């Protein structure tokens, strides 16, 4: 089972992958400014309890954290310590978050972090070769027990062979959604899949994106079919 927990909402765009951010797109429909970062009403969700005193989030849940912002956003520095405390307290759940700011990892890091918490998985986003070459060396060197690489939105062919070693638990690839989406080329997806295959790293093709180039033909795929079509490709590589 899984649940989403957004302790704060809003973000600042910092790289090419942010251009058509889905958070900005959704907020824009409601007249909200996504660059304004605020704590949410669910800030304390992991430690909230029901009337019977049990936790609202039961044990053994996967908690997808900060998916409407970035966990290491500087606007959230003053709140992050409290979030780490909740994550440590709820060591019966597994917390997963994705960041474009892995270079800020050590800011507000808990004193007892050591080589990482068992119940935390961190994913670093790399949308192009430039960000792969910047973020992955930093990511590899950090004390995190569970690491995954997120190539989403995939904007170009990426060579990550020199980074794909046993420290990577999963590589996830996906195209960009939305009316303004940039093209995702299936050849780029297959190239990353082959890199993972050579290095024996699990691989997941999550979604095609809205504009998907395959065999020289550009397909425009509605949101409801993007995950389905990626699954139909049948190119996932499962756990070692």
Order of helices and strands: EEHEEHEEHEEEHEEEH
pLDDT < 50 runs, ≥5 residues: none
Q: Mind telling me the C-alpha Rg?
A: 18 Å
Total separate domains: 2
Coarse shape: globular
Total count of strands: 12
Query: How is the biggest beta sheet arranged?
Result: 7 strands, parallel
Biggest sheet: strands side by side, in what order?
1-4-5-6-7-8-10
Average pLDDT metric: 97
In DSSP terms (H or I, runs of 4 or more residues), the helix count works out at 5
Content-based structural category: alpha/beta
C-alpha end-to-end distance = 22 Å
User: Percent helix among the residues?
Assistant: 10-25%
Strand content: 15-25%
Overview of the structural elements:
With 240 residues, the chain is α/β, with parallel strands linked by helices. Helix content is 24%, strand content 21%. It contains five helices and twelve strands. The strands form three sheets. The chain has a seven-stranded parallel sheet with strand order 1-4-5-6-7-8-10. α2 (77-89) links the parallel β4 and β5. It starts with a strand and ends in an 8-residue tail after the last helix.
């Amino acid at each position: 089972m899984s649940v989403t927990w957004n302790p704060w909402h809003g973000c600042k765009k910092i790289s090419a992958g942010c251009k058509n951010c889905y958070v900005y797109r959704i907020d824009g429909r409601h007249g909200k400014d996504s660059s304004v970062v605020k704590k949410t009403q669910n800030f304390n969700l992991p430690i909230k309890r029901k009337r019977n005193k049990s936790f609202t989030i039961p044990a053994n849940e996967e908690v997808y954290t900060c998916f409407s912002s970035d966990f290491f956003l500087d606007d959230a520095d003053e709140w992050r310590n409290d979030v780490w405390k909740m994550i440590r307290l709820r060591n019966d759940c597994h917390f997963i978050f994705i960041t474009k700011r892995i270079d800020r990892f050590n800011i507000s890091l808990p004193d007892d972090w050591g080589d990482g918490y068992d119940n935390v998985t961190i994913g670093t986003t790399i949308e192009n070769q430039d960000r792969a070459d910047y973020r992955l060396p930093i990511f590899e060197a950090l004390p995190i027990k569970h690491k995954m690489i997120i190539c989403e939105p995939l904007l170009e062919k990426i060579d990550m062979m020199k980074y794909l070693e046993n420290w990577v638990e999963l590589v996830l690839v996906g195209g960009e959604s939305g009316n303004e989406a940039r093209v995702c080329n299936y050849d780029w997806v297959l190239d990353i899949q082959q890199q993972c295959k050579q290095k024996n790293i699990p691989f997941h093709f999550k979604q095609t994106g809205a504009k998907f180039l395959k065999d020289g033909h550009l397909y425009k795929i509605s949101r409801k079919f993007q995950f389905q079509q990626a699954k139909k490709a049948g190119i996932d590589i499962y756990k070692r």
